[in-house]
Design the sequence.
């Protein structure tokens, strides 16, 4: 503990005594109102982690629920700590060669803590994408290592390129307002790379057959989707960093309409394609619409956002089918398609629909090409770094649980107990009579009014 | 004594139970089962992938009765549970050597009356 | 796609370049702070849809969960799109004869996008009320048609009468601050009308008997109620449209106290009436208290709001009993009573408890009479339009799923799979050993400390 | 009803007509922006009740779910009403001898309604802590009486000592920024006292054995934890009462980092101690980190907050083990440890880590001693008042349900029905065919692609 | 050999199991059942409407044993599972023609010892 | 006719079913069971407290067949469901006195073919 005293001393400097002036000025008020807006955004982005946790646990099997929940909690926690210690510096520190930041570690010298808080919430989002794709088979310990690599280094470097201001992609004119590439594509490529090393879940593919492994609780997944949609208003809206009446409502409006369009198009498209309105694909469709508009939410018109969303919904359905049945990449929650394919689409969509530089608005191909370069660079960087990292750690021990543990469920194997006890443990050694709800008897009883006096 | 064990469609249980009550048969034990036979399953779709459902939900009803009640009850089961469509189920008649009521220790037919 | 270019062009004009002035002025700051408040309100109202989805799915059967969730998602999505395309214009466009708006379609010429965003979140609320009442039996496709009619035309017209400023009910002095009538009553009357065409669920009424069809997951329904209560602070609070320190805290205070009172009164009343604190009715009681104060939240005192809430809770319980057992109208989630009966009560309560015009504050009967006229007008308009609409569409095909599909559950019939797989699919063709949580064995085991060393 | 007219009349005075000035001034804007911030905080604190409800129901058995949900709803409702009627006055009214407030009942004479709203959300938090600890065995009616005592008197008095400004602990220099002591310790001591009267659940301890009674739905509990974490940003952040850019981001930053550290330390510590990453203890660890930083969130550095959090996580695990296996105090959800032990730790941590007065920053022992005095005073006051109260009411009737009711579950006994019907009621008297999801057959079917045409 | 099939109150299973162990009977198979007989059901209320619960949860325990163990086990069941209140359940004795242990293919009494 | 009742590991059911199909046995009824015998249970940890799991999940499969099919089916069960590890389960052969198909009222072996 005492070794930390140096650290404490450094941080001590960060604490300024409140300088909330007795007489407010328009400048101080501007700071305050922007603060409230950015904090609201940060809270909403934080809440997205609840959304991810619910989607990922709902779309996978009951026997792995504790595991996926713990992965989500550890992700947000590790990400915040690491971003504080090293990530923020690498991402927003003074640029070394337009490639990476070089100061601001432990926030030393950083004044705008509110910006740190907002950005810290984003980091975990990028890493948590992976947890969904590797669900039901990756070791908890190995996953934690990947989170460390992603949040401490890989993501901050991408962020530096695009969001720090002096990054090389920024210099090229690459535009990614709220992170279709920075956050979502980076996360998805990381996920894809890990999944390629990991392989599919036991029983997912057998010979030529693709087996269905249904999620155990779609309603809680649907709640997660609602939470994510809500959180995204903060994700995109807060990225304005200012309560700017000329910008914020457009950002929220495009986010709302793109997503609405994507839900409608994915629902309709599954109905046409599979003769059923597929619920879980439509829920993914919502996320597709959100990821699709994230890059361009501040420079695409409301009408444009609807088109972006409509296409996102269709790409989502085809993308998931393609990965699942053609490439046989087992992604239990569809994370790679949602964040990767739609992340690319969203990034490119800026080159098409940006009202200032987009192809369809007379801006020519230049923005589109820059967007493409950015996508390629991020894919390459993430794939290589994550690939090397996974390759190295998999030399030391398997990154996958044993087949026996996978079949028994990661909850019991890694956490010692189960997520649900919906029917009561029937019998204790104490000979205590125990009721059992949900039992057969309950269900055999007809629930009918007997006592007319009450009604 | 005999045990009449019958596998029926779940939705027919209540009708069967009511008819059994009306002829004075009140004691029975029910379990949930899944069955397969001639009856065809259903097709589902999840995330665009079609899957086949082969085992179908059934209810197993067991009642221990006096030998001379068997025919009446068999007819009553056929009467209540037959829909004419494949999947209506079966009746199996088992021999039972002894019955005991736990509460009183009574043996034989008194144990189930 | 290319045909959309005209549309895109129109929308292009909407995008103004950011005008966030270098030197903030008190006027620009006023805009910013109001923006933050209204956006916060909009996000909270958006989140209410998660609440509705959870209440509606929790209060109905597991076999219809996907269906009701999809209905909620399609509602918010279609409503946003349609409100953008046509609804906003009909509601807030230049008044044609105080009856309906006549411009502003596709938001052309509309400057305040933040107001559009806030209002767009409201529209879906009105339509989603219907999804609860028609749950477990209405065809997905027919429901979508009703949503289109409600959100594109029927609700915007009511909104025009009351909220546009030049509507005929506004002219009469009708007062409905946040929408007891505009949103809730309109939705509830729509719901009632559709339910009258639809009839009760199979097995709900048989001869003289009223059968109980219990909800499958009351805890998730309770979470939904909490979400709705939270969202309502944005619903009522955001309706001030400004971060006005003299108004907002009163609105939030009355909303909090009315709802608290309604929960207490409904819990207590069920205890007296049925000898049990009925959980699901008490949860409905919360919603009753919220709807009850919605119209008057800005002009009823804190004490008055408690009385309004106490009565809402009682009306709720009696209303649900009356509809269910006397009128035999099958409303699985109690939506018609919550939003209809309490919507009327809330609207009339303004005439009684308004501190400026209410009867109990010496304002005489005039406000009360105007409120009554508004209620009658909205009931008539909604019932007739929805009635005619349903009548017409039911000429083309049944609006109800087949009895077979209803019994099998709408999830499997319309969406091809189930909402829950809480016990694992036992056996795959691959002879893969599979654990089965929640199984009998799990429950038969006594969970007892064996290994004292650990503790 | 008519007797209320006097009350109404009093409240009438409270309603000022909106005074939102035509020309905003920096002062009016300051009020507005602070209002938005405090309201945001209030909403988030409100939402914490959803979090508590989910944690408490998820961590207990399915057969008591309705009961615990109803306890949560009644708590927030009663607390708001009582705080309005009497609590606010006792807490923030003019100080009588630095011990208790003496005016402001029914908010008469109170102008800042926004402060009332924010504080009202806190009150229920304190009481709701008890509902978790007494879960699965306390009578609903007796619980309501305890809520009344806590929220109307016991908590407001503590609040007066520490937060009113003229309280005796404030005079001593006691520092508790957002309520580690005021809210959490008070609640936890109340819980402990009631639990001592109540005894453990049937079957929890038998001879030397400590039996495991697993929670029925850890995923919904995890969602609750996320909601609580989110809400806490409002709890701590809103306690600044102003959108102060120099203070708020630090508060949010310490809250984020302390909690992250606590999750990591509790997960790691259970892994070392029990060879498993214990999911439910780690979730409690999150709450431990939140409670631990609550007192000091505004005066502990970011680095300091990490240390506070790391220790909170370890204290949590040991605390729960100690209470459960050594003291044999049955606290189903770990509330006493989370809010009590970590509440004390958080309060004392101010004396250690406060950058202005803490021991480790050269402030000497004086702050620490004052913190200790505060803790002792609050423990004594709460234990004595709650103890006497419970003693008195238990003279009139048992505060515990009968063993038979406890075994059958409080839901059926007190509320007449069950929380879940996840498998459908199989058979109605109408001979209606009913599907049964979750049934054996569903699980025996292998879900395999048959129709290759679709894919 | 005989199969002893007994329907008991769920809460009595653990006691029965312990007593069976103590006389050396370790092998048994349990299923969840619902039963009706003389025992009265319970009343519930949902949204103000009263409903009746008629089938009650039971546990079915099956064990295959040597003929000469039957009486001892029957007495032991009565001993452990009788409460004297209606609803204690029944014991049914079935003839069994053959028993095989899947693991080894052993037949007869060796298969269950 | 005989009823073959077999308690097996859940994960073996699909293999058994496929093999039964291949020799023309399509009708069967399955129930979920929990069993104990020689097989050891597992240990879990919840909130730091270790607990023991003793009953293990099993599947009970019942099929009524002609007398002369019994041996073939028994061998087939041993073949499909034996892993050599303790816990593979048992096969019990019961006499059946009569079988009736509810749909048609057919008796005897015709009822199950
Ligand atoms: N030989 C058998 N042994 C045991 N159960 C059987 C047998 N044949 C059929 N069953 C049960 O009876 C049910 C109905 O049988 P099926 O052949 O589908 O229809 P039906 O009885 O109308 O001809 C099956 O689902 C299964 O549970
Ligand atoms: N004739 C019967 N056949 C099969 N099971 C029966 C029969 N009679 C009773 N049972 C089972 O035994 C249980 C207890 O029977 P009941 O008559 O209620 O009490 P008791 O056995 O104490 O007289 C019933 O719930 C049912 O499961
Ligand atoms: N005497 C018995 N009567 C009924 N079922 C039994 C009996 N003995 C074992 N079983 C069932 O068979 C299963 C396997 O038995 P076990 O002794 O563990 O392994 P094995 O059969 O491989 O020797 C048990 O879980 C139980 O369900």
Sequence:
């Amino acid at each position: 503990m005492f070794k930390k005293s140096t650290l404490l001393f450094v941080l001590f400097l960060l604490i300024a005594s409140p300088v909330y002036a007795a007489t407010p000025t328009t400048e101080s008020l501007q700071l305050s109102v922007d603060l409230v807006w950015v904090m609201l955004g940060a809270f909403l982005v934080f809440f997205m982690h609840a959304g991810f946790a619910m989607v990922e646990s709902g779309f996978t099997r009951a026997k792995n629920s504790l595991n996926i929940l713990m992965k989500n909690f550890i992700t947000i926690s590790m990400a915040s700590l690491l971003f504080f210690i090293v990530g923020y510096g690498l991402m927003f520190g003074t640029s070394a060669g337009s490639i990476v930041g070089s100061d601001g570690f432990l926030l030393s010298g950083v004044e705008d803590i509110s910006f740190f808080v907002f950005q810290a919430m984003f980091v975990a989002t990028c890493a948590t994408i992976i947890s969904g794709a590797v669900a039901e088979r990756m070791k908890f310990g190995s996953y934690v290592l990947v989170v460390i690599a992603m949040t401490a280094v890989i993501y901050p470097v991408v962020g530096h390129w695009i969001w720090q201001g002096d990054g090389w992609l920024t210099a090229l004119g690459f535009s990614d307002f709220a992170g279709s590439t920075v956050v979502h594509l980076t996360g998805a490529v990381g996920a894809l790379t890990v999944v390629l090393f990991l392989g599919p879940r036991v029983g997912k593919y057998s010979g030529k057959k693709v087996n269905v492994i249904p999620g155990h609780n779609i309603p809680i997944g649907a709640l997660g989707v609602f939470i994510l949609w809500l959180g995204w208003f903060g994700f995109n809206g807060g990225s304005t960093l200012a309560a700017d009446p000329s910008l914020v409502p457009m950002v929220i409006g495009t986010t709302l309409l793109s997503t609405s369009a994507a839900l409608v198009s994915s629902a309709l498209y599954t109905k046409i394609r599979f003769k059923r309105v597929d619920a879980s694909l439509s829920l993914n469709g919502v996320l597709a619409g959100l990821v699709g508009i994230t890059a361009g939410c501040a420079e695409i018109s409301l009408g444009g956002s609807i088109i972006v969303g409509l296409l996102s919904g269709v790409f989502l359905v085809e993308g998931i089918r393609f990965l699942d049945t053609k490439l046989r990449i087992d992604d239990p929650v569809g994370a790679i398609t949602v964040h990767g394919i739609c992340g690319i689409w969203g990034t490119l969509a800026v080159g098409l629909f940006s009202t200032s530089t987009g192809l369809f608005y007379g801006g020519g191909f230049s923005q589109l090409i820059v967007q493409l370069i950015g996508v390629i660079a991020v894919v390459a960087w993430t794939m290589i770094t994550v690939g090397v990292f996974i390759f190295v750690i998999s030399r030391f021990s398997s990154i996958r649980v044993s087949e026996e543990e996978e079949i028994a469920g990661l909850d019991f194997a890694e956490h010692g107990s189960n997520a649900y006890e919906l029917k009561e443990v029937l019998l204790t050694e104490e000979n205590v009579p125990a009721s059992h709800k949900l039992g057969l008897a309950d269900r055999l009883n007809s629930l009918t009014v007997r006592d007319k006096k009450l009604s | 004594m005999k045990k009449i064990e019958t596998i029926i469609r779940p939705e027919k249980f209540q009708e069967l139970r009511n008819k059994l009550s009306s002829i004075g048969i009140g004691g029975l034990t029910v379990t949930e089962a899944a069955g397969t036979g001639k009856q065809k399953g259903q097709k589902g779709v999840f995330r665009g992938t079609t899957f086949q459902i082969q085992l179908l939900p059934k209810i197993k009803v067991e009642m221990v009765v006096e030998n001379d009640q068997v025919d009446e009850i068999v007819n009553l089961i056929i009467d209540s549970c037959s829909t004419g469509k494949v999947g209506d189920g079966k009746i199996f008649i088992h021999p039972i050597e002894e019955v005991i009521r736990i509460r009183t220790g009574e043996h034989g037919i008194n144990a189930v009356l």
About this structure: Chain D has 16 helices and four strands.
